[in-house]
Specification:
The chain is elongated. Helix 1 crosses helix 5 and helix 2 packs parallel to helix 3. The mean pLDDT is 89. Strand 7 and strand 8 form a beta hairpin. By secondary structure, it is of the alpha/beta class. It contains eight helices and twelve strands. It has two domains: 122 residues, Response regulator (Rossmann fold); 96 residues, Arc Repressor Mutant, subunit A (Orthogonal Bundle). The strands form three sheets. A five-stranded parallel beta sheet has the order 2-1-3-4-5, with helices on both faces. Strands 6-7-8-9 form a four-stranded antiparallel beta sheet, covered by helices on one side. It has a three-stranded antiparallel beta sheet with strand order 10-12-11. The structure holds calcium ion. Calcium ion binds next to loops.
C-alpha cells in the first residue's frame, strides 16, 4: 500500500484530501505545519507527497527542496494562488505537479494515481531500483550504502556497513568470529579477530536500543554472533 504525506495547514482541506485518498486505498498522514512536515520527511518513508505552498514557519517550497535532496518520489504542490504556482514552476524545484485551490478531491486522487503509476513504471525498469534489506526498524540500502535506524539515517564506516549487511543477509545463522573476519576483512588488513568484536560493539551502539539486550545481533557465547531474523 502506498503511503502519502499531506502537509497542509488548513485542517478541513487536509482531512478532505485524506478521506478521499484513504477511500482509494492509500495510507495517509497529515502534518499541519511546515516544521512538523519537514521532520516527517526526514523520519519516515513515503511514496508521494502533497505539499501546500504557504505554511506557517517552514513553507512547502523548503520541504520540496529537502525531499528532492534525497528522494525522487512524486511531489504534488498545492497553492491557493495561481501566480505562486507559476512562480515555483519557473524555479524548477523538481515538483511533479502543481494544483491550484480549490480543486475537486477526485481530481487530486486521479493525479496521485497517475503520478504513482508513472513512478512505479520508472522504478520497475530497474534503473532506480535499489537493493534494500528491511528488518524491523533497520533498513539497509545496499545500493546506496545507506542505513536507517528507526527512520533516522545513521552513519557507518565501510567495515561496519559490510559486517552489518553480511549478518543481516544471513539471519538465524551463527558465524564464528574467524569466519566473519575472513568474510569482511578478507585477510587484507593487519589485525585479528578482536577487530570483529570491536566492530560488533560499534554497530550495536548505533542500531540497538539497549546494547546489553541486543535486538539484532546476538552473542552466542563461545561461538560467535547471530543476526535475529
Ligand atoms: Ca496554507
Amino acid at each position: 500500500m502506498s503511503r502519502i504525506l499531506i502537509v497542509e495547514d488548513e485542517e478541513s482541506i487536509a482531512d478532505l484530501e485524506k478521506d478521499y485518498l484513504e477511500l482509494s486505498g492509500f495510507e495517509v498522514d497529515i502534518e499541519t505545519n511546515g516544521r512538523a512536515g519537514l521532520k516527517a520527511v526526514q523520519m519516515r518513508e513515503y511514496d508521494l507527497f502533497i505539499l501546500d505552498l504557504m505554511l506557517p514557519d517552514v513553507d512547502g517550497f523548503e520541504i520540496c527542496r529537502e525531499i528532492r535532496s534525497t528522494k525522487d518520489v512524486p511531489i504534488l504542490m498545492v497553492s491557493a494562488k495561481k501566480d505562486d504556482i507559476d512562480k515555483i514552476r519557473g524555479l524548477g524545484l523538481g515538483a511533479d505537479d502543481y494544483i491550484t485551490k480549490p480543486f475537486s478531491p477526485s481530481e487530486l486522487v486521479a493525479r496521485v494515481k497517475a503520478h504513482l503509476a508513472r513512478y512505479e513504471r520508472l522504478v520497475g525498469t530497474g534503473a532506480y531500483k535499489n537493493d534494500v534489506i528491511q528488518i524491523r526498524g533497520l533498513k539497509i540500502d545496499k545500493t546506496a550504502r545507506r542505513v536507517w535506524v528507526n527512520g533516522t539515517e545513521t552513519q557507518f564506516t565501510t567495515k561496519e556497513f559490510d559486517l552489518l549487511t553480511f549478518l543481516a543477509e544471513h539471519p538465524d545463522r551463527v558465524f564464528k568470529k574467524e569466519e566473519l573476519f575472513r568474510e569482511i576483512w578478507n585477510m587484507e588488513s593487519i589485525g585479528d579477530i578482536a577487530t570483529v568484536t570491536v566492530h560488533i560493539k560499534k554497530i550495536r551502539e548505533k542500531v540497538e536500543f539497549d546494547t546489553s539486550k541486543p535486538q539484532y545481533i546476538e552473542t552466542i557465547w563461545g561461538v560467535g554472533y547471530r543476526f535475529k531474523a
